[in-house]
Write a sequence for this structure.
C-alpha cells in the first residue's frame, strides 16, 4: 500500500525535521494532479503532502497538529482540536507576548470577556465575540454567558435583566418557557430568557424585529424599523 511504503521509506531515512523539498526515491503520489495530504504514521505534527504528483514531508507550525480536516495553517489544526491516536504529538511552547504557541486561541484575561486573542505566526490579534456572547476557554469559542456563570454575569454581558415574573397576558408569555423581550430602539435583536438569564438573539439577514409580535419580519412589514439596514 502507498502509505505503508511511505512509512518504510520515512523510518529508513529517519526524517524528523521540516522537509520542504521532494522526497527522493519515495513512492509516487496516488493522484498525479491536485493537492492531497496523508498522515505521518508515527508523528502527529508532520504529514505528507502531494502537489501535482510531487511528495513532500511537511511540519505543522508550533501549536498545530495534523488531522486531515483542519486548515488553520498549511493543512494543520489547533492542537486541542486534533485526536492523534497512536501518533506522537510534540508540543513545545514558543511563547511570545499574549501567545503560548505561535498558533492558538486564548482568553483576553482571567475574567469574563467578550473578546479573545487569536495568535498567528506568534502575533496576538484581538477578536470580538458576536454581541451577547462571551469567550469560553473550555471550548475555545464564544458562548452564551449563562453557560459561563462561574466567571460571567449574563445581565452585564447582554445589558438586560429578565423580569422575575412574566405577565401571563403579554406577548412575552406566548414564548414560555423562554419568554422574549424587545430592546427599545434595537431593530436587530431580541432577548430570550433562559432559566431567568438573558440571551441576545439576532434576527436573520434581511429581517428586523417586530415589537408587536416579538418575531423577525421583513422591514416593509415593520414601519418602526423600515429604515434599518443590517451592517
Amino acid at each position: 500500500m502507498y502509505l505503508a511504503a511511505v512509512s518504510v521509506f520515512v523510518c529508513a531515512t529517519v526524517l524528523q525535521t521540516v522537509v520542504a523539498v521532494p522526497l527522493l526515491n519515495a513512492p509516487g503520489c496516488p493522484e498525479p494532479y491536485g493537492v492531497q495530504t496523508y498522515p505521518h504514521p508515527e508523528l502527529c505534527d508532520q504529514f505528507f503532502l502531494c502537489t501535482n504528483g510531487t511528495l513532500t514531508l511537511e511540519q505543522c507550525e508550533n501549536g498545530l497538529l495534523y488531522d486531515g480536516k483542519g486548515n488553520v495553517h498549511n493543512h494543520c489544526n489547533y492542537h486541542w482540536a486534533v485526536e492523534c491516536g497512536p501518533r506522537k504529538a510534540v508540543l513545545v511552547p514558543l511563547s511570545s507576548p499574549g501567545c503560548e504557541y505561535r498558533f492558538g486561541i486564548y482568553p483576553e484575561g482571567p475574567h469574563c470577556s467578550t473578546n479573545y486573542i487569536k495568535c498567528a505566526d506568534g502575533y496576538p490579534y484581538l477578536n470580538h465575540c458576536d454581541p451577547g456572547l462571551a469567550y469560553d476557554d473550555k471550548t475555545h469559542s464564544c458562548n452564551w454567558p449563562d453557560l459561563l456563570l462561574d466567571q460571567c454575569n449574563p445581565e452585564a454581558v447582554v445589558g438586560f435583566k429578565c423580569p422575575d415574573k412574566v405577565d401571563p397576558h403579554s406577548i412575552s408569555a406566548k414564548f414560555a418557557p423562554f419568554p422574549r423581550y424587545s430592546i427599545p430602539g434595537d431593530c436587530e435583536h431580541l432577548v430570550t430568557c433562559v432559566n431567568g438569564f438573558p440571551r441576545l438573539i439576532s434576527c436573520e439577514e434581511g429581517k428586523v424585529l417586530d415589537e408587536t409580535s416579538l418575531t423577525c419580519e421583513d422591514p416593509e412589514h415593520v414601519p418602526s424599523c423600515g429604515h434599518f439596514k443590517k451592517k
In short: The first helix runs from residue 2 to 13. The mean pLDDT is 87. Residues 35-78 form one domain.
